[in-house]
Amino acid sequence: MNADLRRERESASFHTERLTHLLDGGPEKTRRRREIETLALNDPELQHKEVNFLTCSERYDVAVKKSSLMVRKIQEHAISNPEEIMSFKRYVHRGRPEPLDLHLGMFLPTILNQATPEQQDRFFIPAWNLQIIGTYAQTEMGHGVVVGDIGPKFGFDDVDNGFLKLENVRVPRENMLMRYAKVLPDGTYMKPPSDKLTYGTMVFIRSMIVGESARALSQACTIAIRYSAVRHQSELKPGAPEPQILDYQTQQYKLFPLLATAYAFCFVGNFMRDMYHRITGDMNDGDYSQLPELHSLSAGLKAFTTWVASTGIEECRMACGGHGYSRCSGLPDIYVTFTPTCTYEGENTVMMLQTARSLSLSGCGKWQMASTLSERGTTPSLVMWWPRKSICSQLNSHFAGLIVRPDCASRAKSQQRYLFKSYTRAKSGQRLSGTVSYLNDLCNHIQPQQVAGRPPLANLDNVTRLVEAYKLRAANLVEGAVQSYHVELGCRINKEEAWNSTAIDLVRASGAHCHYVVVKLFAAKLSEITDGSIHNVLCTLFRLYALHGISKNSGDFLHAGIFNDHQISQVHQCVKELLAAVRPNAVALVDAFDYPDAILSSVLGRYDGNVYEHMFEWAKRSPLNQNEVHESFHKYLKPLQSKL
Questions:
Q1: Is position 540 within any domain?
Q2: For the residues 319-327, what does the mean pLDDT come to?
Q3: I need a surface site. Which of 119, 264, 532, 567 has the fewest CB within 10 A?
Q4: Where among 195, 227, 255 does a domain terminate?
């Protein structure tokens, strides 16, 4: 064990294992997660090859082999809980994408959501048993169908993304999933009651991506912070030993706000998971009132968290200096694997606009926040790849809760702008609840001229005050976006042009709304913590997250009159003080994420901190090191030397 890391862990002010339990949801969940982890990581057949030294074709071959083994192992171990299945997949493939991701994560749920009962009987069980392997464009090879791989991508080397061209192909009518949209035998097309009925799978995936944002960013923080505790450079005082680079304030400013963000996203990811399961239960009981907020919030938080996490992973890589560029650091792989989330399942700018403008139920519901979460949404059991028809009903209860049944669909045609419409309702005197409840106070929120007479110091220790500041910022930007729209509406030909001309303001308003939700959920989590030492360290992280966000977006808070110049200066100073407060616990905080070395796949982020000797061993495995002199020297350079 590296002496610096040992000292860091010994000086922590809290019990790391207890914080791990908090993140997992309790000691029993930690125990079970580690049990699933051990099954995958210790299985001799699933031992991981160093894929960085393989060709693209070889990587794909290894991935398909491991996916095939994974299916058999899940069956052998009788892993039935959907979340445990996803965890086992992640451990088998060390967090990388795998060839069956689309089949398991989207194809099966789509059949459940959009197929008729007869089609489920025909397609689902074969797909469940991998007799059918689905993707976005499934086809038969017997008709004039041209398919192929699209070529190298920015990451996802283990997945075969392809192209499809259909020439003189007739798709049988019964192959169209016709739970909602239908084609009759005479060729008549029947539209679904609502266009949103087919979005269930995407909303589910978007909700899960929020948790993936937390996972990817926390892994990057773990690598960068551990390495920063091991690496020494330069000198703070003449003649003194070189300090750990984690002692430099600039390094802390790069990494500690990202660490706080990772914790915030962990709590938000758990909230979205619980919200999805709860609404699934509600909708199965005929209550669709919370579907509008789930649709809007999953779109906005997907965009907000993936943008922040993608940028944060790259900051972590750059914070590791030159070694961060090496694939042995693990950071390039995390980045190229995660960054596509900014595009797939909805491009992020479009998602932010969808939060501002999305179809939702017309005035038929109240929205609930985390404090009202019930225990109803527990995950039902599954038996993976066992050919029983009861699986369909079990999976339906897990995935199909987002299906809007036809009896409610006729109500899903209005309220076309979520934040926009909520603002209008609040201004008209209607009371809102849930994540948009702050719009109730629009008429009473602080005006800029009122701030001038305030004392120059603000109470920046007050959690409620910080949440309130974000609430007021979101309200101000939503109000400004709506006003801009009405101004544009008076100058444009139609509503669509006015909306497009207000798009920048709408994206900013949606971002502020999501930022407020994250701050509010982080603060709500603090109120649940009974362990004093953990509460203290997470309060420090909360304040760092909230105040760093104010510092980076100070213009918004100044313009809204929430803070004055003196108070913003106080925020900047407080951020620097919080960096020093986080410093003694930084390593223990990343340890609490509990990532084994096999999952991090990082020489720089090793738990034992023995970085440099393992970096050398890793480099020696490069194919270029198999020969002392590469053949290209004898073929090209040596003949050239003889001629010059």
A1: yes
A2: 94
A3: 532
A4: 195
